Amino acid sequence: MYHEVQEGDFHVNSIRLKLIITVHDQNHVETLQANLNFNSEPINSKIMIYQLNHIEKQSYIPDIVNRDYRTASVFRKYGIDFCCGAKLPLEAACNIRGIDADAVKDDLERVTQNLTVSNMLRFDKWGLGFLADYIVHIHHDYLRAILPEAMESLKSFTKGHQKKYGYLLELTDIFCSLANEMLVHIAQEEEVIFPYIKQIEHAYENRESYASLLVRTLSKPVEDMRTHEHEVIVRSLNRIRELTNNYESPANACTSHKVNLLTLEEIDNDLIQHLHLENNILFPKAIKMEQELLQHR
Predict the structure, then answer these.
(1) 194 membership: H or E segment, kind and range
(2) Digit-coded pLDDT (tens) for 139-154
(3) How many independent structural domains does the chain possess?
(4) Are 134 and 29 in a shared domain?
């Protein structure tokens, strides 16, 4: 049975790799090294991770974007065309524009890193203040970063392709309305709802004498704001899914078309997790605390 993990710094065709290799003895390591045609540099030490999102400077720009749509945001940042007219390798395109290819490459590899949150996390066991802060730093900050860029990208694409794809005008209108609504919504959450929830939690944990007054004063407007805005968000997402056939690109879609749809799908996925944390955990727990505080006034 394999029971040991060793690391290796290897060179394959002049490319340096770091691999995780599970082995049971050194003979196995030597055989693996020979079969993979590694140079004679030895395997040593414990664990390293192979960089799966490595990008070559000789890769063609459309190929980079087609492999991972998130790279489009980097090319926009540097003013590099990645769609129909883009036929150059990364390094050549950077040289033409006088841009540091290594800097662009680093940015591309940064945006293609996959960050995951384990399903084992028990969000329902977190304190309300901590969960509210998590939502702000993970979901709100993400939306502030992605929504303005996504709106501009979709508007630009729609302007040049609305005659070919009739659904784009309605899609752009609904998405931009949703995006602007979300930016206002998250600001209200941070300025009104989340501070209120933290006050409720503090009063609940410390059995403060003013707690019942706090609940009577703020709970109704907070509940009205939360219910209305979340209904608008869900309705908009459902319509966007209908218009895009659940973000499926047409058979003849260009790279920009695919990038826009995949970006919308990414935002959709984030919003679903965002709403789940609020509607199914944060707000119900806060409401339960309110009810208990009122019962013990």
Answers:
(1) helix 194-206
(2) 999 999 999 999 999 9
(3) 3
(4) no
